[in-house]
Amino acid sequence: xxxxxxxxxxxxxxxxxxxxxxxxxxxxxxxxxxxxxxxxxxxxxxxxxxxxxxxxxxxxxxxxxxxxxxxxxxxxxxxxxxxxxxxxxxxxxxxxxxxxxxxxxxxxxxxxxxxxxxxxxxxxxxxxxxxxxxxxxxxxxxxxxxxxxxxxxxxxxxxxxxxxxxxxxxxxxxxxxxxxxxxxxxxxxxxxxxxxxxxxxxxxxxxxxxxxxxxxxxxxxxxxxxxxxxxxxxxxxxxxxxxxxxxxxxxxxxxxxxxxxxxxxxxxxxxxxxxxxxxxxxxxxxxxxxxxxxxxxxxxxxxxxxxxxxxxxxxxxxxxxxxxxxxxxxxxxxxxxxxxxxxxxxxxxxxxxxxxxxxxxxxxxxxxxxxxxxxxxxxxxxxxxxxxxxxxxx
Length: 394
What we know:
Layout: E1 4-9, E2 81-86, H1 93-106, H2 108-115, H3 125-137, H4 141-159, H5 164-179, E3 194-199, H6 206-218, E4 224-228, H7 234-247, E5 250-252, H8 259-272, E6 277-281, H9 290-306, E7 313-319, H10 324-337, E8 341-345, H11 355-362, E9 367-371, E10 379-381, H12 384-391
Parallel strand pairs: 3-6, 3-7, 4-5, 4-6, 7-8, 8-9
Antiparallel strand pairs: 1-2, 9-10
């Protein structure tokens, strides 16, 4: 379902053996990466990157070499690293059941109004009207609701469905197809450091999501550095510092000053230390605050000056409880920054889980992670099938 990346040392077994190593992106000088603190590797979620294995995996077909790297005189060729696509690891059955239980519980308020429609009823116009109301109440939006109902009517007619549970199954299939474009893996190893810029409005769970994501990355042997780009709120810096202490991760911060300057320094520090991933927190702001949105654009431009091609990921953290307002945020931040992915938080206990259908229909930006609680393991990669099953009580 996902693409996974493995990083391992490239070496030549003999002079006649073909060199299968790939070089790092142009302009970066790679040295042995700083190892992140040891972290448990069991029950690691899919959707990020697999940790180095004891033995080198088979090379995936059609791997493309990256641009050549200018090496420093004292840099040994044997230290170059290769990125390979490998099969996803089999997730522990217990961890999988635990996550699905939390996801279903979190979406129970949304699913209750949908699943009850197909119990003790018949397939008629009343069923479609009830389903339309339930989808709109879940904040799926008018566009996605009309799209799903029209497709469902056609499916019922063509396949001659006569049982309400068959209609429910048909709806699940349509919902999976709608949400599938949002399903994408977060791929690492493309640059060192891989720079991620995190944006969002106040209260969306931005700083907490950064802390959780840092922990996930460490479970894949990725070294992480955090930048406290929210220089206006002391609480934001303190919160990020706490996460840094928990994960034994360096946090670059400054009590006051220009956020862009703080993040610029953090990129430099990450490059000097050969850190794998640098995540930059930014100040929360509303899309209507045009001068603050312009400041975000400035931060992105400055990151590009600190490292060519950066930021490699621009993620928006949205609160599922805000419903259609979350869709408005996605549109505004995407127009301003060019988003590469979303992190959807606070799906636990929300009655507005249908917002992902609205996003898929109107602005299908990949959803890298969804959150259903406060614990680190409550932030997991998004799966269209798992989400649809939880939403429809599958």
